[in-house]
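Onboarding guide, step 5: your first structure request.
Type a short instruction followed by the sequence, for example:

Predict the 3D structure of this protein.
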Amino acid sequence: MRNLALVSALLFLNIIFDARADVPLVELIQRIQPAVATVVSFDKNNNPVRQGSGFFVDPKGVLITNKHVIQGAHAATVKLASGQLYLIEGVLAIGTDSDIVKLRVKLDGKTTPFMTPADLTPQVGEDIVVIGSPLGLEATVSRGIVSAIRNIPAIGNVLQISAPLSPGSSGSPVLNMKGQVVGVATFILKEGQALNFAIPSKTILELSPENQPVKLSEIERVVALIAQARLKYNEKDSRGALKELEELLKLKPNHAEALELKKKIEIELNVPLLRPDGKIVLLDDKAKVVYLNAGSNDRVCQGLTFTVYDRGTNIQENSKGKAAIEVFDVAKTSSAARIIHSQIGRPIQPGDIIGNLIWDRNKTNVFVIAGDFDTDGDGYIDLNAIDRIKRLIETWGGRVDNQVSADTDLVVLGESPHVPPKLNSQELFDPVSKKRYEVLLQKFRHYNDVQHGAKTLQIPIFTCKQFFSGIGYKVQIKRTASDHKAATRDNSLMGVVTAVDVKNLLIQISIGATNGVREGMRFHATRNSKFICDIVILVVEPQKAIGCLELLQEQSKDLPKIGDNVSTGL
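The system replies with structure tokens like these:
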């Protein structure tokens, strides 16, 4: 009985209709009214200044109304059809180009019926219903049709409706006869008759994700700051825009538009990845050692490498630099580094600047890595490259995420993985073949998602070569590889190949779960100490395992054979 009661309560809270059929008007109104509220805003002296309508789109108190209903308010309340009165806690999101706002109502732990905005555009001539509080007359119902769909400059697409609207109707839900929210009543033209307009419900779905609410008393400041930032950026005052955005993000740290614009400006201003990290203050040319103006207080560590640039250079994404150095001794405010390599005819000089895309003395830079990499330049794909690069980034104080977001500072892209061939009729029923296909397809999709996300958010994309150049790469990745090899040699799992299906790129090995083999583990196949290929384990049984074959060369003549050695050591 308790479960049945819970199901009934949930069905009541989320007002659901059968989208295939119209609902009788009386029944529709009875179901919808509990989710509609009257909104009243107050000034700092607690005097009412404006009234409108709104409706809940979440059982925990997320309410939609028009921006102008709460504009300039110091506080606001909502009154439900039941007569209950609640305070508005703050603003969750504001429409960038629309008069829509998403509010958080303080329900004190209670829940409320709600409606879900529909991702659809109604047809011209379609019957609609509006429920709101015109002139303070709560739960007033008006009926009409969609008269037209128009595009109004500075507003965008709007629904022209014949249902009567009056002051106080702003923020009311507009529904079709199936009970779907298709718009939000917004404004009227007083010069004509029945010239009423609503913003399409799709606009609600485009609002930024819900975050911590901003107080109503601060929202005017948020609106003003983003407007000033846009204006200054359009007038080529990027640094002025950045200051406005930093002030805004103190009030609303997750403001989507502010984060996106800030990221764009930082890239253009080379902040912080593409600016100098320090400089060379002293040179011992005979010992091939330089001394830097950064030490342990700045998070410098032994093994950290830098690219060296001529003094006064504006470091750009494609700058190659003239030398690379590696730190070997660290003091609190300075450090010593050996010269790894330098270009002939471009000697290192005191005052030259240094840079490393990963390291930053003030913050943690965030990276996303995707694709296939040849880290040591031998012409072969290094199947452990992403793990090595990730380990390097984390060692030097950076962070690696799997997907691109507004937090991402830089994307490192290798070569695009190959699109796996579609499974044939027999492979569709083979779990191993299906797993192999899914692994390869996921790798390909991840690469495309990362590339698309970086371009959309205008995050710098570096090739493997550009990235290595920007961190002072010359021997570091090779050393990382050799260190990994030494660390894993003694603890590696070893077996032999017991079956090969080259056509489907599958290999069976002689060890399994009882030997410590796990799904996703990578083995290396060798013959007479010569590397053949890598194997990614897909299926593990107690005494054997099956993996996906990954050749370093597509046309390699050295295909794996039964009896070849396999090991997790490099």
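Each response can be followed by summary notes, for example: The radius of gyration is 31 Å.
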